[in-house]
Structure of N-formimino-L-glutamate deiminase:
Amino acid sequence: MASAAPQNVCFHAAQALLPQGWARDVRIECAQGRIAAITADTPRQDGDRNLWTVLPGLGNLHSHAFQRAMAGLTEVGGTTGDSFWSWRELMYRFLDRLDPDSFQAIAEQAYMEMLEAGFTRVGEFHYLHHAQDGRHYANPAEMAVRLAAAADRTGVGLTLLPVFYAHADFGGVAPVPGQRRFLHDIDGFARLLEGCAQALADLPDAVLGLAPHSLRATTETELQALAGMTRGPIHIHIAEQVREVEACLAWSGQRPVQWLYAHAAVDERWCLVHATHVTPEEVRLMAGSGAVVGLCPITEANLGDGLFPMREHIAAGGRFGVGSDSNVLIDAAEELRLLEYGQRLTLRGRNVLSPANLSTGRWLYQQALEGAGQALGVRAGLAVGAPADLLELDPDHVSLHGRSGDSLLDSALFAARNGAVRAVWRNGRELVREGRHLNRDAIQTRYRAALDRILA
């Protein structure tokens, strides 16, 4: 299997992005899949794997893998009031066609694409639990088992976030038929968590957290019970849509982030996904708690969500990471690029997020790296003790020619069309070579067969 047997290997990079900044002639020694030593300004030794420019692998903190198969199928104009909510109804109809085999094949395709794009770990916000008629599988964690198998076959690091979903709207409103495959009560969800832990048992450095889907899908009592079920990461969708904010105000007199902080002990374990529509007061609450805001710029643009007040969040000391969410397009560089460009369009300026005289590309990359590591429950970066998750940029990519250091990373993020990642290692094991996942052909064959069944 791709993710088995973490490797002992030594790399020598012409330059590498370390936590303290760029370094040259960097030797990275890996043992049992982790970085055992890093030495800069040192010559290459016999047996070292010779690399050009090395970056730490980036975490993707928010994914719904199965939605990769419906990418591009909802782009039809002329529908009055087309929005996230109408897209959601299409998504409900699509997922009714998924069985466990198709679900796994789609996840393998999505995870493979993430690795080729430079994401080495994914936070899978997993809410498709049951069969098409809503009945539980013989193994209640069957779909989690399939996600673990997809991670194993591709080699991506997995932080599994089983989702608790019980209601259709604020105040415990009964669920609708389209949500039947998601639903649990607290006792059933506890059993699901046990099954998820078993599913991850053989995956190196897998992490298990959980996710209340949203304030719409949980009650206060359930939310408090969930927080006590894990020591791992806790993720939640929040304040993504104006309609969601208005409904929360009508129900409680408070906005979603306001309500959450009044009723839950939000801390560094939490990731607040989207948080698009927030006030300055809510920004200060999020930043002060140490929680990570999970931003998904490609999906947020695709769904017409709006733009998060990023500069205010940064000024308050807030943390963030990026995710591919609906997986309509899987591209780590594009997530960071669109995050910056969205703010430029709003603020009508250039290089609006990074501090003065600091590379925008390096600042975005390092901040997203640290935020995703925190949100996914792992240590991130090229540092002793961290997983040996690294990627090499392509020295032959024309957009990177003549660059080094910050200008190289800026060019990779803002100017390198069709990606600039040449090779990717996870736990010291090579998974991507010359821009292609080593198992791409087999994965794509299974994916195409799954699409043929789903779209027939």
